[in-house]
Amino acid sequence: MSVSNKKLPKFTLGVEEEYQIIDPETRDLRSHMSKIVEGGKIQLREQVKAEMHQSVVEVGTNICQNVQEARKEVAFLRNKIAELAGKQGLIVGASSTHPFAKWQDQAITDEPRYHHIVDELKDIARSNLIFGLHVHVGIENRETALQLMNQACYFLPHVYALTTNSPFWEGRDTGFKAFRAKIFAKFPRTGLPEYFDSVQSYDNYLEILVKTNCIDNPKKIWWDLRMHPFFSTIEFRICDMCLTVEETTCIVALIQAVVAKLYKLLMSNTSFNIYRIALIRENKFRAARNGIEGKLIDFGKKSEVPTIELIAELLDFIDDVVDELGSREEVEYVHQILAKGTGADQQLAVYRETGDLAKVVDYITGKFTEGI
Length: 372
What we know:
The chain is an alpha+beta fold. Helices cover 47% and strands 13% of the residues. Helix 2 (67-87) packs antiparallel against helix 9 (245-267) and helix 5 crosses helix 9.
């Protein structure tokens, strides 16, 4: 049996989502996270945690063996957080920015870690009122993980375009489908990761940052894609929060399949082109601005191509691994996203119809546990 025909590893999964805690009367964010987290700790233990702003709740799945298990856990966590919030007279939503909330009104969580970040970054940290989806894919070997990270960067804008869900900021239509990344870009060590030719060069980079007091631990590398400093995973951090469980599951399946396909090529000594980060950055900007409705650059053809065409090419690229991963149905949900629009498209449609951002909030919260 050739190397390329060997059975793929499992590529275990972990999913983290950040939710908005909302007052059902005002539809504004409510700094009420602590009671929800405290209640959740009894049942969910380490699967629920506080974030820097008290109106944010973060949840994380256990290690999942496949996409179906990940979906089941995300659905369970969404239901449980909605239930806990309901007991406090609150509701929950999934979007990467709130349509009209002001960051100046949000309380900071009273924990040393967050006080330290605010002390260091000032209003950059205080204004970081955003919500993200992080997807971990298990890879045991760090050298392999680094190579896959370098190669997977090319596909980040494709995946990002499918998750765009932050069109509003402080009551304004920003003109972007995903404004979250523009807010987060004020932080240091964010955006697309640098290219590293070896784990040693990567570790040297981290060592210099720690020694010079730029960071006190490697978790403060907040790139769109990173080798996790403590887990044997590569962590995709570029995605906006998805409105629904089905959308999240689709994105998780897509990311897992990209990693599996790149691994398959790597194990058969077939290299995937590594493009300059400066070029991929152009595609990320286009994805943030226009989502699936715009154009990305096809670097091979050196021309602009409709984003939906490059997404179709991506589906063709991963087609030979999805059956072994058992995720064809979840991956093919991409066609549903393309048909109905991303979360940003749906939010904007509600706003154009009603002219009322409170109605947009109602739409977001109404989608939170849809289908589960």
